[in-house]
Amino acid sequence: MDRRDFLMASALAAATAAAKGVAAPEPPSIEGVRWAKAPCRFCGTGCHVQVGTKGGKVVAIAGDPKAEVNKGLLCVKGYHVGLALYGKDRLTTPLLRKNGKLTPISWDEAIQKVVERIQLDPKGFAIYGSGQWTIPEGYAANKLVKAALRNNQIDPNARLCMASAVTGFLATYGVDEPAGCYDDLDRCDVLVLWGNNPAEMHPVLFSRVIDRRSRGEKVTIIDIGTRRTRSTGHADHYLEMKPHGDVAIANGILHLLVQRGTYDKEFVERHTAFRAPANPPTLEGAPISFDEFKRRIAEYTPEKVSRLSGISEQDLRLLADLFGNKKLRITSLWCMGMNQHTLGTAINCLVHGVHLFSGHFGRPGDAPTSLTGQPSACGTAREVGTLCHALPGGGVVTNPEHRQHAEAIWNLAAGSVNPKPGYHTVELWKRFSKPKSQGGDIHTIWSMVTNPGQSLPNRNALFDPSRKDPSKFLIVSDVYPTETVRAADLVLPSALWVEKNGMFGNSERRTQQWFKMVPPPGQARDDCWQLLAVARALHEAGFAGTRDKDGQYLFRIVKDGKEVPVWDWRHYYDVNVDEQLFEEYRKFSRAKHKDLAPYQEYVKARGLRWPVVQQANGTWRETRFRFAEFDDPYVAKGKGFDFYHSTSKDGRAQIWFHPYAPPPEVPDAEYPLWLCTGRVLEHWHTGSLTRRIPQLHGAMPAAYVEVHPEDAQRLGVSQGERVVVESRRGKLVVPVWINGRGAPPVGTLFIPFFDETMLVNRVTLEAHDPFSKQPDYKKCAARLRKATAQELTG
Amino acid sequence: MSGWPPSLRPGHPADRLVLLAAVIGVAAAGMGFVAGMRGTEAYVGRLRVSGGPTPPVASDSMPRYGDMGQRARGPNSDLYVNGLTGLVPPTPDPFAPLVQTEAERDALIEARRERRAYDGAPPTIPHAIDERSTGSCRSCHDQGVRIAGKTAPRIPHEPFTNCTQCHVPRRTDSVPQNTFSGVASPGAGTRAWPGAPPTIPHSTRMRGECASCHGAGGLLGIRTPHPYRESCTQCHVTQGDPAR
């Protein structure tokens, strides 16, 4: 063999080897990075991420290509979620306010302090929780309040975001949460946005729709909103409405469907019934006949709807044309625009009603889809029932059967669960802010994983007064110094995201699990541990509520037959507390057909959508489309659809009539502008995490007020000028952004709430929906004026 | 003359003013003409030096019509550097000889690292953007373009419509302190022997379009010496978990 042949032969051999990846020398492991799955810490989309860790720290994030939700894609917040753990000012020591100053104390002291406050008067001790609680955290808190303290004083921040969606679901279907799932986004021909901005707020879901256009599919997007946003740029039609216009528009569509006869006659006849508000008003309302419904809807002519809503008659007819066309698959999306609304329950019912009435329901792509904001408002707040009136699995404290079911699972004596609901969020903070002599019967609030000092509406009334009253005590579990932490009496440093085990439940009923990957800093400890430590300390102090009817400790965690002292932090991870609590909580989930699978199934999967039902061969099958025979195992053969929690007890969903009513506060001579508040892509909620991430803070460093150029000219303010925006309740100084990211119409202002140096919630009002008790952050009357020199420096 | 306004008839006191204005005007025009000639002094000078008329020859000072776009001339030279003609992406010549240095490579790696929280993160945008729509992103990044010595790379991943979902600009240098230390770019791939095709040292997730960074129109410092080969992954493979 000559040299040439030899070279060719070895080249061939090497090439083949390279192709098989065998003979070529083993490359060194490039990063030494270990990858594991977790749902993202941020929004309710519930994207799955791959978290890269090395040396006890998160060093990289990647979208998880195996996840159905996001198929490997994330958004800018998700790509930088790992950095949320590493802001320089993490809370690492428990702190107690002594002589006005927060001073470090030990965990034992801190836990004792919490117990002290409970013992002071158990009836006046409340927990303010969160849709960012993990499922086991929420379950431990709910059990502590409902089974041990028995005062029902627990409510989540989800009251401020999803409560109206919940009441809308309950009033329509008798049970919470969407019937469809994200698969609908892959199939819809028309996407209607009802007052939300998914291009910034649920970006991965929005991409899922608009990227279909790159593949040649046609998707018509209709943006119904009070101002132009980034989503508008991708829409085919923009329908600019006045506040509360959505109620008129939905009624207008129903009216035209009746008038034209283009509603789905068969579906309506077989599967729906009609309701109207009762007197006095109840969530279930009063049944009415179809004829009565037609009579009441008759007044919502296109002319009247146009007048009430501000959209043109032509645009209303466009909507009715679409909904009247059964060949199209229509998905409606909504979020805070419809939920943070004093007619929130009504508008939710109406949009469900439009879909049911037109038959755009129950086929992939035909779906009224309420989008959730927080990562586990569904999974924790709603499903675990961490609300003042609720029990796990969709139960309510006012229902004797639900109470008995809880007492059975918790092994409590009959009559243990308190039938009287506690205070909802706005009421809770009001009672905390008032002195005892004026009915302020809440003396302590333990706020966990949320920032009410920044996010409560009308902060001057709901939050500030308690901070001047020495009899009121605020306990805060959080990870960074926030508005709430700075005002707290006791601060408990907490573990964040992958510093602990956890589970979340996203917008499409998908429960997702993750394992702890890195240690929390300093003395920060899991929120769940904090709750169990308090429960144990209460127990050791002889508090009767911590024992079940057989005298056993209510929060016993057992492994191999022996109790594990999980209240001792050194032993907390001797056992998987998440798994134990979840397996107990699971028992509640069958009652309303929200079946959850065993914990280990969630370890294996990138989440599973409930009801998860075990098959004959032992595998667990998730449900994508509820109430529909083709996919929901709880619908009997031949039924087509079965709304098995129907409030009319006949398997039918309710189509509601709700009349239009104007907003509670409208612009007048004194306060001539609408003020709307909301979010931006870069920041999560109150920014306590995202404003510590350089890439996100750097992209959106500060809040602003969006002003229309004509308004700016009339008011004599210029780009970037710091002005005062004020209402009857309070004011803030904020810079002007003309022709910014969003474009409000003349007479409307928009301010995002992520910036703790510009608290827009001093200006907003706490008026709320009568059923959901959810306040309206989207519309109040304000004015804008030039700032005085003192206001600019002060 | 009778048609003229009374003030302009000869003998009228205003006549002199008009005459003065005309003289000044002509003088100014003349001076302007002479001054304007200065800009072409070289040309004029050359002609003077060579004496009488010369046959037309290409010279430094006499641009060809086709060259005018690319040539910097006089006070308006900026116009040509950042000009519209420069925006047409020159079709990179895949057979042009490649000259790039280690220093260029190092500078590039550093610049890329600065814009990414960790290797694999979506880069932040180093320029101002249109807040409202993403159509403008595509006008440069769809094909890739070179402007004023900078490269706007072609999008290396599959087309997504909502660019600003993942890529955000940096509006301020005042950013919070954060102790996160992201995994670094792995550097060069490994070669089985000198001359063997190097392995791909990075994940190919969101990096399906190799030419975006490594092609003839790509980033100087990491360009491939053989951009005329279209099927990169025939010879270059990733290492480790294919799911990554």
Question: How would you describe this protein?
Answer:
The complex is a heterodimer of chains A (794) and B (244). Chain A is of the alpha/beta class. Chain A is 30% helix and 18% strand. Chain A has 27 helices and 33 strands. In chain A, the strands form nine sheets. Chain A has a seven-stranded mixed sheet with strand order 5-4-19-18-17-6-7, with helices on both faces. A six-stranded mixed sheet of chain A has the order 29-31-30-33-28-32. In chain A, α4 runs parallel beside α22. The longest helix of chain A is centred in the first third of the chain and has 18 residues, at 3-20. Chain A is globular, with a radius of gyration of 27 Å. The termini of chain A are far apart. Mean pLDDT of chain A is 94; it is low at 6-30. Chain B is mostly helical. Helix content of chain B is 28%, strand content 2%. Chain B contains seven helices and two strands, in the order ααααααββα. In chain B, a hairpin with a 2-residue loop joins β1 and β2 (150-152). Chain B is elongated and about 100 Å long. Chain B starts with 12 loop residues before the first helix and ends in a 30-residue tail after the last helix. The model of chain B is unreliable at 1-9 and 39-60 (pLDDT under 50). At the A-B interface, α1, β2, β3, α8 and α25 of A face loops of B.
